[in-house]
Amino acid sequence: YTARQEGVTSRLYSLNGGHWTLSPSTIRTALERALEQGQLHLAYQPLVGRGGALRGFEALLRWAHPQYGTIGPDQFIPVAEMSGLIRHIGSWVLQEATRTALGWPDGTVVSVNISGRQFEHPEFIRELKAALAHSALPPQRLELELTESALMLNSARAERTLRQVKAMGVRVALDDYGVGYSNLGRLKLLDIDTIKIDRSFTRDLTASLPGQVNPDAAIVRSVVGLARDLGIEVVAEGVETQGHLNLLAQLGCETMQGYLFSRPLPAAEAQRWLIHWGRWSWLSGLPWGQETP
Ligand code: C2E
Ligand code: MG
Ligand code: MG
Ligand code: MG
């Protein structure tokens, strides 16, 4: 009985809000089989640009395990990174996302998250080229999302890899901006296309303190101003309410992503979204940059 119970507790850390919290070793073992058994798939969340135009989708990994249920990327990506499995998974994500994006209208961008370990691996550029070659997706329609910490891992190599990516014509976004080092001077050197302002700034944007400027609004305004001067596009993450949207538009942010527009969707639903979005954006009367017909 004890042995069995021990077996169970070493597999499952705790029952947390009705979901099993799995131990890293359980995740690792299960993850080794996840790809070949077809348990991984990508969800696509829209990014909405000026005038309500659909700019593209961010591809987000989803894992549906037959026993453990859905396991979030925040839980399994760190394990995949530590175990080295991220290379295999990350290369599949690139192939799958570029192949899906080829079925979208011309100009629609797919954003793919790249982990630091994946980015610094000597084979990364070769895998990126292979994904573009297999899918025949024009490189300008692919954007890689990197965090500042990913670019700091081995900065000499990271900068060289970044130059190679840019030379291929692939776009680069700095993800979760504002929570890391946020070295403003480095932005110019890195030649990135997009800054994604972290969700934590959007979250408290509309909270008002009597007689005080909202600090997050002040930060967003300054990032938007700097980005505009450097010719960098700004995306706000975590846009959940009309209030967020109105304020972000007022602060000069042009591209938005969040539950207000849509949750991450299965590929087939993203495809439907591409067809119906024009009508929906008109009906909902999006307030910013509304281009007169
Ligand atoms: P991220 O790249 O910053 O992705 C945005 C996360 O915010 C996603 O969580 C998305 O579902 C969530 N989100 C979007 N809009 C809203 C909103 O309005 N409100 C709230 N509360 N959340 C929103 P998700 O899918 O759980 O992914 C978490 C993280 O896992 C990602 O953060 C990314 O760092 C990582 N990740 C996901 N897919 C991949 C992948 O294919 N490769 C790698 N290396 N990392 C991935
Ligand atoms: Mg991202
Ligand atoms: Mg992000
Ligand atoms: Mg994030």
Walkthrough of the structure:
The strands form 2 sheets. Strands 3, 4, 5, 6, 7, 8, 9, 10, 11 and 12 form a 10-stranded mixed beta sheet that branches. Helix 2 (24-34) crosses helix 3 (73-83) and helix 4 runs parallel beside helix 6. Strand 4 and strand 5 form a beta hairpin. The protein has 293 residues and is α/β, with parallel strands linked by helices. It contains 13 helices and 12 strands. Mean pLDDT is 86; it is low at 1-15 and 287-293. The chain is globular and about 55 Å long. One magnesium ion binds next to loops. Residues 24-278 form the EAL domain. This is EAL domain-containing protein. It comes from Deinococcus sonorensis.
Attribute tags:
disordered C terminus; 10-stranded mixed sheet; 22% strand; 13 helices; 12 strands; single chain; alpha/beta; binds ligand C2E; binds magnesium ion
